[in-house]
Amino acid sequence: xxxxxxxxxxxxxxxxxxxxxxxxxxxxxxxxxxxxxxxxxxxxxxxxxxxxxxxxxxxxxxxxxxxxxxxxxxxxxxxxxxxxxxxxxxxxxxxxxxxxxxxxxxxxxxxxxxxxxxxxxxxxxxxxxxxxxxxxxxxxxxxxxxxxxxxxxxxxxxxxxxxxxxxxxxxxxxxxxxxxxxxxxxxxxxxxxxxxxxxxxxxxxxxxxxxxxxxxxxxxxxxxxxxxxxxxxxxxxx
Length: 238
Description:
By secondary structure, the chain is an alpha/beta fold. The chain has a single domain, classed as Vaccinia Virus protein VP39 (Rossmann fold), CATH 3.40.50. It has ten helices and seven strands. The chain has helices at residues 5-11, 33-41, 55-63, 68-75, 86-96, 113-116, 135-146, 163-169, 186-195, 216-224; strands spanning 45-49, 78-83, 101-103, 120-126, 150-158, 199-206, 231-237. Helix 2 packs parallel to helix 4 (68-75). The relative contact order is 0.17.
């Protein structure tokens, strides 16, 4: 989405339209979500919110080196993890001896001094916002608790217009993670971020994973039409 003065007025509710149209401006290079986050994290201090992932998948992801939090640990100067999944945190600490993991509900718990006393270059919130029942309140709680501790926030979320959704619509099917509450578009993600009081810095359209050799046609299409890519990545300031 192209950021301009008129769009900002829609986001701030200064003006209204029942059929606003926004042009999409995508990067020519099709980035991979994890590669992009790892690139940002290199030699930086990182706070990773929602790091556990789905507990039944963790062992396989660690085995095949696809678990995002481990990638961030390896790339960053320091990486702390926050999640509400106590079982997952205990499992990771016991089975893999991973440090700096905290079970915290950022909407209600007091942030421990071990985190509140530090400065982080980035807070990563990858593929979390779609699981949250009230995403605006969630983002407002983050702003209240971490405004003095975090430089920038990177949000990622599945794109409502993604290629697989488009193709499944021709089969009259919806394929979805059953814990998801929302699909976000570039505008609706911008809307909740603005409602929570954040400043939008950048928005990218990326793929969640890598293309297989058989997906050359899909790759060509997604290069031309970025709105069909898997994932939205938004960079914001508190």
